Amino acid sequence: MKLIHQVRAVKNKREIANIKKAQKLSELLLYDVLKKLKTGVTEFDIARFITNRFVKLGAPILSFPPIVAFGKNSANIHHTPGKTKLRRGDFIMLDFGCTINGYCSDMTRTYFWGEPTKKQKKIYLAVLGAQNRALKQIQKGERRAKIIDRFARGFLAKVFKNNFKHGLGHGVGTVIHEWPNFKPKSEDIIPAGCVMTVEPGLYFKGFGGVRIEDMILIAKNGYKNLTNVPKDIKSVIL
Questions:
Q1: Which residues of 27-49 are buried (b: 16+ CB within 10 A; e: fewer)?
Q2: Could you tell me if 110 and 203 are in contact, meaning their C-beta atoms sit under 8 angstroms apart?
Q3: Backbone CA torsion sign across 41, 112, 138, 166
Q4: Cα separations in angstroms, 15 against 19, 118, 221
Q5: Cα dist. 216→116, 134, 168 in Å?
Q6: Model pLDDT, residue 76
Q7: CA contacts within 13 A on the Cβ side of 123
Q8: What residues does the Peptidase M24 domain cover (predicted)?
């Protein structure tokens, strides 16, 4: 069974082209979503807009139901969009993707509706720092999943104890979660030609959370980031 997973993990040019196309479409849609945000809009309104817009863009099959979380709901890793309305000072977490010819995309961005507080900013910069550290290890040629996970997790633990509650990332292909996985106890060695997510997060019940997720293509030397949406602190303050 593992051999099948390993063969499936390494993508050919056609498969990579489909994943890139799905990601480009998701990025186009993200900018449409940002224009739709306004005080008083509900999570459900935005989630419905995402679903309908993908249909209009010719990608009716989503990678998974979109996650739209405002304010303290962003502390829930797999939040189901509801009637919560957007208010000034809120976190906005958007996690979605679509499929092209059966191949998935996956991306998360966290925004602030107005100027973030010191604590919000600290959380955001910690998550971004953790992602950058993991990517740096991959760039250097590290391919042991648990070591890559450890670099991000160790950095976050120094700033906020035990609030990173999931693996650092997973393979992406015809299903949204494929082998291999970035996890603390993973024995996986990440092969070149594999598409992975790198998605550290911090979550604080009753306050909110931040997740930043990029999709990358593992190369023989380093990686190529397939996600082209700005994530610096200035770009995420709306």
A1: bebeeebeeebeeeebbebbbeb
A2: no
A3: negative
A4: 6, 42, 20
A5: 28, 12, 13
A6: 97
A7: 23
A8: 18-219
Contact of 214 with 30, CB cutoff 8 Å: no
pLDDT tens figures, 180-233 = 999 999 999 999 999 999 999 999 999 999 999 999 999 999 999 999 999 999
For residues 63 and 180, give the distance between their C-alpha atoms in angstroms, rounded to a whole number. Answer: 18
Number of other CB atoms surrounding residue 222 within 10 Å: 15
Domain that holds residue 10: 2-236
pLDDT band for 174, please (50, 70, 90 cuts).
very high
Kindly list the distances between the CA atom of residue 97 and the CA atoms of 26, 51, 78, 84, 199, in Å, as whole numbers in the listed order.
Answer: 6, 10, 14, 22, 14
Can you give the CATH number for the domain in which 117 is found?
3.90.230.10
Please name the amino acid found at residue 59. Answer: A
